Amino acid sequence: MSEFTVHVVDDDASVLEALALLMRLEGFAVRTYSSGRDFLAATLEGAGCVVLDMRLGDMHGLAVLAALKRRGNGMPVIVLTAYGDIPTTVQAMREGARDFLT
């Protein structure tokens, strides 16, 4: 059985590093991605979840969610963003996000 992995996607290096450290201190394996394209190009195997920023340098988090949905990836996604609003929250949930944290 594969290890549970937290996939953290954020284009802000300091946020990416801080979240990764926090997850590792809690005992989780962590993979980090500084862009939506890097994340979508990665092979996602085993159990895990995704912590996803909405404003990525190369694409919007909603596009990442839509791509995961098209692929049939059932990995839970938690959106963590400093730029949350109600329409984006609703759209993210429709695209499959499990939670939306501002």
Describe the structure.
It is a single chain. The chain is of the alpha/beta class and 102 residues long. The chain is 38% helix and 22% strand. It contains 4 helices and 5 strands. Strands 2-1-3-4-5 form a 5-stranded parallel sheet, with helices on both faces. β1 (5-9), α1 (13-25) and β2 form a beta-alpha-beta unit. The model has no long low-confidence stretch (mean pLDDT 93).
Number of helices: 4
- Average per-residue pLDDT, rounded, comes to 93
Number of strands: 5
Based on secondary structure, the structural category is alpha/beta
**Rg over C-alpha atoms, rounded to the nearest angstrom:** 13 Å
Low-pLDDT stretches are none
String of helices and strands: EHEHEHEHE
The proportion of strand residues reads: 15-25%
Helix % is 25-40%
Topology:
Layout: E1 5-9, H1 13-25, E2 29-33, H2 36-41, E3 48-52, H3 61-71, E4 77-80, H4 86-94, E5 99-101
Parallel strand pairs: 1-2, 1-3, 3-4, 4-5
Quick overview:
Helix content is 38%, strand content 22%.
Name the features.
102 residues; alpha/beta; 4 helices; 22% strand
